Amino acid sequence: MGEAFHTDELELKDMFNETKLPPIHLEEKFQIVDDLYKTAKLRKMVPHKWVLAGISFLVIVLLAGAVSYLPVSAEQLQRIPFIGKLFSGNIFSIAGDSGINIGQNAGLSTEVPLIASDQGVTIKLQDALFDGARLSISYEINSVKPDNLMFINLTNITVAVNGVQLKAATFGTKPRQINANQTIGILTVDIDQMEWIEKFILELNINEIRAADLGETSKITGKWSFKLPIENHALENSKYKKLVEGPSAKSENGEFQLTDYLITPITTKLGYRFEGNTEWLRFQVKDGKGMIIDWLDSRGSDTTANGVIGTSRYVPLPEGTKEIFVTPYHLLPDRRSDELKKVKVNLTDNYPITLSQGNVGEIRVNKVEFQTEKTLIYYEVIGKNPHVQSASLWMETSDGQMVISGPGNRKRISDSTYSYVLEYPALNPNESYVLGTMIQTDLKLLEELTLKLIVE
């Protein structure tokens, strides 16, 4: 059962991005349930028995500390269009990946300032970004009752396109809690065969919010409805190609073929067919310079007589990329407890400070700057899965009791290495601190199945 609930720390970071670090306990359980929901619901397929069992098990485990239900007699649903920016910061820039940030900075997003309130909970939309590969909508949730919000229940959403309700759609969320009453995040809506759709009207109905503990008593049932225009502003700079006889490779570990690709300024999306062992299967993409392209997510797949068919998404390719190399790999889950997976090293002036992340690689902290307004940690990742590894670094006080809070914004600062800077609020340089990471999930690259794809 434990293996079925495995997840990567990058997924945890992307999904939750909590203001408290390190996010390594309940966040993992939350992300797993969210992924189970996404793969088991709102698709034209029946969820596996282990998926249903896993959801039930995690809900039971997380019932402790459940938040009480808000009264049914709360304020009536209301919608107030065109009220301007709803959050003091830009949600896409705070919680979005590099593709989302690039898209918004290039003017490819659309402001959709809408608000709906019910049951003491207000949901506000800020911006929408659509490129045919994914639809991302930034949102803010406010609750009159503290700690009674976090998740949009992905199993209880309906959508319609141009007035026609869709039965096949998948959803994802990346929530980030600002305080006890406020959460921001990005809702992803995936609709099949939208690569060349230029514009449409989306009707979005959210019917349930859940508190962070996922207990049955913490559900808030209501109706938060939105109707918003969606436009693909990236269409002119996108390239979709169906690969009739795409590159393929075969070995004792399976048969792998690329079936299509969509390249936009916001997303890189690859279609594939794989025959063989698909347990914890993913695909690593490298550009022509050998740098790994950051993975975003994988869509649900369909099983055919010729193997499993699915899609995998990544951040945009570097400008000028003419070829990419795609390698299947299997994650190798580690069942050890979180406590055994932690690695901590005292912060000193003896740089670099190396923190092992297990067989997958290591983090090297090259410098910590205590500035007047902020604290900066400069570090480099060495290993098989650097983008995932990079998300697992934090700093805490020497007694281990107070975890340093703050945005913890990470930014990659090199195109030729996996070097980053992590920003914290200003800290006292005279105090003692501890750097921490976790043993990361190792992976087995199926290098004999690596495919070269020429992109146009």
UniProtKB/TrEMBL annotation:
Which InterPro entries would you find in this protein's record?
A: DUF4179, DUF5643
Keyword Phosphoprotein listed? The answer is no
Per UniProt, the keywords (alphabetical) are: Membrane, Transmembrane, Transmembrane helix
Residue stretches making up the DUF4179 domain: 51-143
Q: Name one Pfam family in it.
A: DUF5643
| Transmembrane portions of the chain | 50-72
Domain DUF5643 residue range list: 249-355
This one is known as: DUF4179 domain-containing protein
Highest classification ranks of the organism: Bacteria, Bacillati, Bacillota, Bacilli, Bacillales
